[in-house]
Every structure is written in C-alpha cells, then in structure tokens.
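so my prof wants the structure for this chain in the tokens format not the other one, which i didnt know existed until like an hour ago. anyway here's the sequence
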Amino acid sequence: MVPTSGVPGGFLTLEGLVCWEKLGEGTQNYFRRLLWASTQLPTPRGGSQGGHELEGLGGFARSRAVLTWGSWLLCPRSPSRQLHAEYCREKDAYLPHRLVQAWELAQFIRHTSKAADVVLLGGDLNMHPEDVGIRLLRGWTGLRDAFAEAAHFEGCEDGCTLIPNNCFTVKSELLPFPLGIRIDYILYKAVSSFTVKCEELKTTTGPAPGMDIPFSDHEAVMATLHIQRQGRSAGATLGTAEPTLVDVVTEARTEVGVGLRAARQQRYSTGRMAVLALLLLLLQALAVLGALAGLAAGQPFPKLSFSLLAFLAIGVLLLATGLHLFHTMEVKMLQGTEEQMRMALRALQERPSDG
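here's what i got, hopefully its the right format
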C-alpha cells in the first residue's frame, strides 16, 4: 500500500523480514535487499526523506532500522536479539539465563523508547508464546505480538517457525510438537501519537525460491504494519495494565532464584576443586624439597610420576579456577537480576495504594 505523501494523518506501510540465524553472505545480502525494497517511506511536506540503516554482523543476518518521518522519530532503533536456546524442555538448565536476557531486553526497550513513536522488535527469542520469558517481555514493555494481532495470516499452521518438515531441523527434538513451535517473533507498539496495526503476517513454507533447500532451520516471518498518526499523544505506557504482571514477574524471579542457587553450588564445587588441586601441588613441592635436601637419601626420586601428577594438578587448578570465575560472574548476574525483579515487584505492589 502506497502511503499518502505530505499528509499529516497519512500512514506508513512497513514490511520487515525476520530470520536471524547463521547465514551465508549471499543469503544475508538477499535479506538486506528484500528489507530495503519492502520499506516505503513518504516524503512529507517540509520534511526530508526517511533514512534507513542495515547491518550484518558476525555471519548473522541482523537489522537495525533508523526511520524518520518529517520531524518525528518513527523508530529510533529496532534491535534484533537471539536469546539462549532451549535444549531440553523438561530439564531446562538455561531457563534462568534466558529470563535474564528477556529482562535485560525489556529494560533496554523501556529506557530507550521513551522518545520514540513506534517500537519494533523482531528476532529469534527461543521461547514459546506461553513461556514466562515472553510473557515477561511483553508484559513489562507493552509490546504486541504481530501473530496474535494480524488481521490476515498466511503460512505455517499456528505460525510455527521451527517445523519438522524443514530439512535442517532435528526431528527428534520436535516429537512433542508435531506441528512445530513458534519461537520467532515480530513485536511492536505505538508509544506517542501513532497507532500501529498488523494487517498481514506471513511465514515462509518450504524451500527458498530457486533452491531445493530452505534458507535456514527457521522459517522467516514477514509482517505488514500500518502506522498512522492520530490527533493527540497517547503517551508512553508501561505494559502493566494486566493484573497478572505481578504474577509473571514473581514467576520469573522464582526461576531466576533457582538458577542462582544452582550457580552458587557450582561456584562452591569448582572453588573446592581448585583448592584441592592447589594443596596437591603444595604437597608435591614439599616432597621435591625434601628429596633435594637429602631427607629421602638412598631412595630413587620418581621424576616421571611426580611430573605427570604435577601437570595433572596444574591442569585441574587452571580449569577449576576458570570455572570458578565463570560461575562467580554468573552468580553476580543472576543476583543482580533477582534484586531488580524484587524491586520491580515492590513498585508494582505499591502502585495501587499510591492512586
């Protein structure tokens, strides 16, 4: 749909593609050209043509759009994030880490979108729609799911983006989900005097054009958004209208607390291992000094055995020390997030009494 140029109440049609996986340079360029070609901006009277900026980083297809419309900043930054993958749904050891990432992303959006008119977020979030992480992200930021809001949908059933029919997919991992899972999202919201509607959402199905294989193990997601300016500013709103937000933050904080206790246990175990390896090295050093001082005269010194044992102890010491430092940083990260969630919960619970 071609937007009305120069009309303050005109609308803007954006069609963005989301498929942030490890891709080759050719596929990355294809996505870049497609996104450039599908972004239409009006030239308002007295304003300048909007500009966009796209980036491809580290072999991943990622995009960052800078869109201006007259004197209004339409979308200052649309970050693409890939959250930690889920390898086992029954025993998800990385759930606390994924919640930390979701919380940090939600905080980033809250603090950087205050001067924006429209916020767009797209990417592989590695979370099911009903997972606590996606509920936390949407509830804390007020972002809306394009799949749930789309007036028209075309593509894989239930909007799934990781499907068993994809030749790159590990079929055994999707046995509990015969249709596949939906873990790639386009989320959006209007902050100020604009309204956003998702008119259409599509996912790719099957091989890429002119090829026998798909671009990635994930299906791409394409959304057509209509952005229209309204008469007055709606103001920036925190997505806390739902009373369940307190329950969502509480659930997320509980899961982060579970991860924090596990990280503390790992830190203790690796620290103890490092101390034992250090004691072994000290005992070996005392034995060597004793042999050199003649305390063990008349007995051959087992150089080979002592050398092998010393190398083993040094290896264990280095490994345990590295793991201890890693888990120390993990504890600090989880502890900081848990504290932030605790303070956020207190603020949410005190809000009704302030009114």
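also thought this was worth mentioning. The chain has six helices and eleven strands.
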